[in-house]
Amino acid sequence: MKKIFYPAFFHKAEEGGFWVSFPDIPECLTQGDDMTQAYEMAVDALGLALVCREKEQQPFPAASDPTEITPEPDSFLVVIEFDMLAYKKRTSSRAVKKTLSIPEWLNEAAMSMNLNFSQVLQEALMSKIQV
To answer: At 30, which helix (H) or strand (E)?
Structure first.
């Protein structure tokens, strides 16, 4: 999955700053003290909502066409850019133990070179998935 885009309403908050809602993901709400913080919080809130849907094996809702959305009074439309892989890299760095088998000769050759098996596997996997 590459980048996806969801429209969001930025509402002026009475106490200052903005609160953010997503027309396609009603449970996704956040806020920020200024435009920059509100946008960053919107990206994080969107990530959390989509990861929860992914874990529950629910499909992601289709993003509305921003040209067909009319903002509510005291709000304006902002399209939020979201990269699931970047979000997961930033928020899910917990190590996962994997058991694997390799030929004995390969194990001996790698050990003689003092290679870090975990690091080599991570580098190979990132290369393979092109990140």
So the answer is: strand 25-32
Q: Torsion angle of alpha carbons 104, 108, 111, 116, nearest 10°?
A: -30
Residue reference for tokens 């917990």: 94
Q: Helix, strand, coil % (nearest 5) of the chain?
A: 40, 25, 35
Average pLDDT value for residue range 113-123: 89
Distance, CA of 30 to CA of 8 (rounded, Å): 11
Q: Determine the pLDDT at residue 65.
A: 94
CB 45 within 8 A of CB 32: no
Domains of the chain and CATH, by start = 3-91 (3.30.160.250), 95-131 (no CATH)
pTM of the predicted model, to two decimals?
Answer: 0.72
pLDDT tens track for 33-69: 999 999 999 999 999 999 999 999 999 999 999 999 9
